[in-house]
Design a protein that fits this description.
The protein is α+β, with helices and mostly antiparallel strands. 68% of the residues lie in helices and 9% in strands. It is built from 14 helices and 7 strands. The chain starts with 10 loop residues before the first helix and ends in a 5-residue tail after the last strand.
């Protein structure tokens, strides 16, 4: 079995990654603005540094608005062009964290902002950790985020502040290294979980597919036929469209099994199923093994005449089949019964199938290797 790390990252997984990023970053869309206002207003920074406060307020407000719109419109944007989503959304995320990083640096070097430097450092550390964890599905975006948060402060403390702040710059640098390591682990854990989820989905899809197939012929099984017939009858009534059913039975199949053995009989069933698959090609049609040597074909939207044409193609095609083994050469024929939906309220799946079964009985009673259409008026 392929390991979780080796499984191919497909489009569905990329979609889930970006959907998770959008959902996880919703809180971050507005938290910067809220925390900024919570720092600025009580400390009356707008009086000490009005221009800087106006610039930061407008920056956080515009970026928050754009980011929320992008998140709300994620499905529309991503389905139209995934690249557009990344090219627009990712820079908006990084610009927001960069704006906060610049604000943190300003609080360390500008006299008007120094009274709130401690709370700014605390908020920066907290938002760096929260943002890094939220965006961990995408490694490049995570690294851009934590770097945007911390690099302005590191530069400010190492090159534009007093010697006393050198230790703080070093602490910020090692905090960046710590976040680099922690988010790497979170990134790996996210993708392990996501890949595991998709492995389970793939197995579930395969099991679902197998659950509706006949093991011998590879066609749909009786349970799938019953469910599909119910849905197609409902659709035909709603749309007032035609619905045709063919019941196909191998003539004298018991004699084939008795004379040549059940293994040869199974090969004949496989030959018939291959013929049906070649003749019935529309995706809307259903070919199923009805039971034993009987097969059924559901044809939505076709007239009785069109159903007869396909039925004749099947009958003639089967007549040309031949199973050849070193010991035997086996040929066989089929009889076919056709019914069309009357779309009356009292018609059910059972009465619809019963009509085709009665037509099939007529075909066999008249000598087999022929096709009959059920006419309830006769």
């Amino acid at each position: 079995m392929t390991g979780l790390y080796d499984i191919e990252i497909n489009e569905d997984m990329q979609l889930q990654e970006n959907r998770d990023i959008a959902g996880r970053s919703f809180t971050g869309s507005y938290i910067y603005l809220i925390v900024w206002l919570a720092i600025m207003l009580p400390n009356r920074l707008y009086v000490a540094a009005p221009a800087e406060c106006l610039w930061l307020t407008l920056t956080f407000s515009v970026l928050a608005f754009v980011r929320i719109v992008l998140i709300k419109k994620f499905d529309t944007i991503y389905s139209n062009n995934p690249l557009v989503w990344k090219v627009v959304f990712f820079p908006v995320v990084v610009l927001t964290s960069l704006a906060w990083g610049v604000f943190c640096a300003m609080s360390l070097v500008l006299p008007a902002f120094q009274p709130i430097s401690l709370v700014t450092i605390i908020c920066t550390a907290g938002m760096t950790g929260g943002g890094g964890a939220s965006l961990s599905p995408n490694r490049a975006l995570t690294l851009a985020l934590i770097t945007s948060f911390l690099l302005p402060g590191i530069v400010a403390m190492l090159f534009f502040s007093s010697t006393a702040d050198l230790s703080l710059g070093i602490v910020f640098f090692f905090y960046w290294l710590g976040m680099y390591s922690v988010t790497k682990t979170q990134h790996l854990e996210y993708w392990m979980a996501l890949k595991g989820t998709f492995v389970v989905r793939q197995y579930a899809a395969e099991l679902q597919k197998l659950s509706v197939l006949d093991g011998l012929t590879g066609l749909k099984n009786r349970a799938y036929f019953d469910d599909t017939l119910r849905k197609e009858l409902k659709n035909a009534r709603r749309l007032q469209s035609c619905l045709i059913l063919l019941l196909i039975d191998i003539d004298h199949f018991k004699n084939v099994n008795d004379r040549y053995g059940h293994l040869v009989g199974d090969e004949c069933l496989r030959l018939l199923s291959s013929c049906l698959s070649r003749v019935i090609r529309r995706e809307t049609d259903t070919v199923a093994r009805f039971g034993g040597e009987e097969f059924a074909v559901i044809l939505p939207g076709l007239s009785v005449e069109q159903g007869v044409v396909l039925g004749e193609k099947i009958r003639v095609g089967v007549g040309a089949l031949e199973y050849v083994s070193p010991e035997e050469r086996v040929r066989f024929t089929v009889s076919i019964g056709i019914s069309s939906a009357t779309l009356t309220p009292d018609e059910t799946e059972a009465t619809f199938v019963d009509g085709a079964d009665k037509a099939l009985y007529q075909a066999k009673a008249n000598g087999r290797n022929q096709l009959k259409v059920w006419n309830p008026s006769k």
